[in-house]
Structures are given as structure tokens and as C-alpha cells.
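QA checklist item 7 of 12: single-chain prediction sanity check.
[x] sequence parsed
[x] length recorded as 125
[x] structure emitted
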Amino acid sequence: MRSRRIALAVVTAVALTGAVGCSAVDKAFDCVKTADAIATSVDNLSQAVSSASNDPTQLTEALNDIDQELGNLKDTTDNADLAKAVDNLTKGVDNVRTAVEGGDTTPDIQPITDAAAEIGKVCSP
């Protein structure tokens, strides 16, 4: 899946930046935690969208899980670029939540996957 490729790209970036210094190590650590949580969240949301016609509550549950993870991630990073990427992902989640609350059972999650890719870019050396 695309989100797993993003996580792999982030792990590669971490390996390449790990020896650069304390600031780079802090950024790499934040990126690994973020990439793992984001990859899982995007996968869960994709699955929820795929099965929304069978159980629309899965969409809301997946969005709630992402919100919680993003809140935790934002609280644990001191990297401004990574925090901005997390903010962009949060906005994407908010837009999907609004669509779901408006009755859309197949919302466009492309902004969320785009924001997840942005995290990969931020974490690249």
C-alpha cells in the first residue's frame, strides 16, 4: 500500500540522517513515530472507506483514531516542519469527517494520503 511505502521512505531517511547530529536524530525519531502511526491510520481509513456501505460507523471510528494519534504526535514533536505536516493531515481528516457527517459514505481521502506523503518528504534528508 502507498502508506507502507511512505513509512519505508521515512525509515530510509532516518537511516541516512541518523549520524548527522542530535537535531537530526531528534527529527529522525519524530519521523519514525509519525510515519508508523500515519501509515497505520491511513490503512485503517482506507479499509473503513472500502467497507463503509456495510458499516458506516467504521469511518467515524477510523477518523477518531487518527485524530487521537495526530494529537499525540503533535504533542511529542518539536520539529516545526513535521508539526506543519501533521497539521495538514489533521485538516484532511477534518474535511473527511465533515463529508462523512454530511452523509458521504465514500469520501475522498486523497488529501489525507497527500498529507501523509508530505510527512515522508519532511523526513527525507
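[x] summary fact logged: The chain is about 80% helix and 0% strand.
[ ] second reviewer sign-off
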